């Protein structure tokens, strides 16, 4: 182990703890969707957003089950944030502990890559995406266990029954965490098969079939998990994925959205993408060939991007792609330890300079991310404090329409019509956005929770004359404030504004022409 490794990991751990404190409790809006599902699961023993009708509006059944179990012990609304932060710390500590044991005989470049990955995982942007109350840090922990397992088993004489069972369990649990990991488990199984095939080269068909079966343990576990999900929810793909997909959308729009989220995510986006390409190039240089196992292990990102373009998937954050990069990056780093030949001098020098380039990009990004995200965290923390101090639970009997349903749905527990189509069942999720707005307007809601564009869309189908603003909240992002308004109909204004602890203002104060 290089002498600097321990000192640098300690410094990185301190940096991570500082940012965990600075970002507390800046919780993502969608995290409260998970929490409301967890509360209803605990009360009614079913996956349901309203507590009455079963639906599949959560992206992670495993995370909901985990929150439900912890909810019996901790009643705080900060629970999702605390859970995601615990898994983020476990991820960093686990990798910092595992790398020295796995890279004992690896070249120095592998150690440099390990430190670079640990650095990326403590950047402010990593805190933004891994500590927001969602299941992302949990899934990255599972992915890390999977990669270390297949990397080790790929170079053993045989896969024992215990190892097969371990991979099976990992595949099952990971797919319960995110159903799209069915694809990842297929990739992991294929990677393990190619590694063992390339090293052992079994001769006969029976030997190859036996090898394929032993390597397919993650996929078998994933298939069982998919069956459990289908039998429990009567669907494999969550309603959230249905609502955010439009097969008619032009492919350029998905590609543009993906590019935008990668650029805005900085160290967890474009820099992580470049780092993945660097680690893949290093494997080719050190192995002096492009192997099938290397191609399989590095396929998740292009595969998921192609699927997103095909489905016209709405990409709202880099979390949808982070796992597609962390998996191959970890595999590439660990694969360098099996390199036997020395790389040619010129490519090795180019890799070294490229690594220095990634370091420079991180040094540039660190202060920029720190400034931008500190401002965002403060704004979100203030909004969260407003929700907690208001008495919105008094509105539980009033009809609500909203677009961002997390905070407002959890703190009010009102019957809710979701313009985004995430939590009102399969039929609502399948409707075009404009039709969902019409359906919500036809229910004659008592009050609404809207931002600029959703307010304008709702105003096209619902007469907002005489409505009032009772409160406003800033769901800030990197670029600008993102104001959301709690508005009420004339009949409900007094009750809603009293619950919000505010004096009503006329809605006309913020109405504006349609966005161009």
Counting helices, strands and paired strands, the structural category is mainly alpha
- Indicate the CATH topology of the domain at 390-509: D-Maltodextrin-Binding Protein, domain 2
Radius of gyration computed on alpha carbons: 24 Å
* Distance separating the two termini: 58 Å
Number of strands: 6
CATH class bucket of the domain at 390-509:
Alpha Beta
Helix content range: 55-70%
Q: Please name the CATH architecture of the domain at 390-509.
A: 3-Layer(aba) Sandwich
| Average of the residue pLDDT scores | 93
Overall 3D shape: globular
Provide the β-strand percentage band: 5-15%
Major β-sheet profile: 6 strands, mixed
- Helix and strand sequence: HHHHHHHHHHHHHHHHHHEHEHHEHEEHE
Low-confidence stretches: none
- Please give the order of strands in the largest beta sheet: 2-1-3-5-4-6
Structure annotation, total helices: 23
Would you give an account of this structure?
This protein is mainly alpha-helical. The protein has a domain of 120 residues: 3-Layer(aba) Sandwich (D-Maltodextrin-Binding Protein, domain 2), CATH 3.40.190. Helix content is 64%, strand content 5%. The protein is built from 23 helices and 6 strands. It has a 6-stranded mixed beta sheet with strand order 2-1-3-5-4-6, sandwiched between helices. Helix 2 crosses helix 3 and helix 9 crosses helix 10. It is globular and about 75 Å long. It starts with a helix and ends in a 10-residue tail after the last strand. The mean pLDDT is 93.
């Amino acid at each position: 182990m290089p002498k600097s490794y321990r000192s640098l990991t300690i410094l990185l751990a301190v940096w991570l703890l500082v940012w965990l404190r600075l970002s507390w409790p800046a919780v993502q809006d969608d995290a409260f969707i998970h929490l409301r599902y967890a509360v209803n699961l605990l009360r009614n023993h079913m996956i349901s957003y309203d507590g009455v009708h079963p639906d599949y509006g959560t992206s992670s059944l495993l995370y909901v089950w985990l929150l439900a179990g912890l909810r019996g012990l901790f009643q705080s609304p900060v629970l999702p944030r605390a859970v995601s932060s615990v898994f983020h710390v476990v991820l960093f500590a686990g990798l910092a502990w595992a790398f020295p044991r796995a890279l004992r005989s690896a070249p120095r470049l592998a150690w440099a890559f390990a430190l670079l990955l640990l650095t990326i995982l403590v950047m402010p942007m990593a805190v933004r995406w891994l500590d927001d109350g969602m299941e992302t840090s949990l899934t990255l922990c599972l992915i890390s266990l999977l990669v270390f397992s297949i990397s080790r088993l790929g170079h053993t004489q045989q896969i024992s029954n215990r190892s097969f069972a371990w991979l099976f369990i990992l595949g099952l649990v990971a797919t319960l965490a995110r159903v799209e990991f069915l694809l990842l488990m297929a990739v992991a199984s294929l990677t393990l098969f190619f590694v063992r095939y390339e090293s052992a080269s079994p001769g006969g068909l029976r030997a190859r079939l036996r090898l394929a079966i032993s390597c397919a343990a993650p996929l078998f576990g994933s298939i069982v998990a998919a069956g459990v999900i289908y039998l429990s929810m009567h669907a494999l793909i969550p309603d959230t994925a249905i609502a955010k997909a439009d097969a008619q959308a032009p492919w350029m729009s998905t590609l543009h959205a993906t590019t935008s989220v990668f650029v805005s995510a900085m160290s967890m986006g474009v820099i992580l993408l470049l780092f993945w390409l660097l680690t893949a190039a290093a494997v080719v240089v050190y192995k002096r060939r492009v192997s099938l196992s290397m191609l399989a292990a590095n396929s998740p990102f292009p595969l998921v991007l192609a699927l997103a373009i095909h489905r016209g998937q709405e990409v709202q954050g880099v979390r949808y792609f982070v796992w597609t990069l962390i998996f191959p990056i970890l595999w590439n780093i660990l694969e360098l330890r099996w390199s036997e030949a020395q790389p040619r001098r010129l490519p090795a020098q180019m890799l070294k300079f490229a690594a220095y380039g990634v370091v420079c990009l991180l040094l540039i990004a660190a202060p920029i991310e720190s400034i931008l995200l500190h401002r965002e965290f403060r704004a979100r923390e203030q909004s969260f404090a407003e929700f907690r101090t208001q008495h919105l639970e008094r509105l539980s009997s009033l009809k609500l329409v909203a677009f961002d349903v997390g905070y407002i749905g959890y703190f009010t527990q009102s019957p809710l019509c979701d313009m985004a189509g995430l939590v009102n069942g399969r039929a609502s999720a399948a409707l075009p956005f404009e039709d969902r707005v019409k359906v919500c307007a036809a229910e004659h809601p008592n009050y609404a929770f809207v931002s600029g564009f959703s307010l304008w869309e709702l105003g096209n189908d619902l007469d907002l004359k005489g409505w009032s603003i009772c409160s406003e909240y800033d769901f800030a992002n990197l670029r600008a404030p993102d104001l959301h308004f709690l508005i009420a109909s004339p009949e409900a204004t007094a009750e809603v504004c009293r619950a919000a602890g505010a004096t009503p203002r006329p809605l006309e104060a913020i109405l504006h022409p349609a966005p161009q």
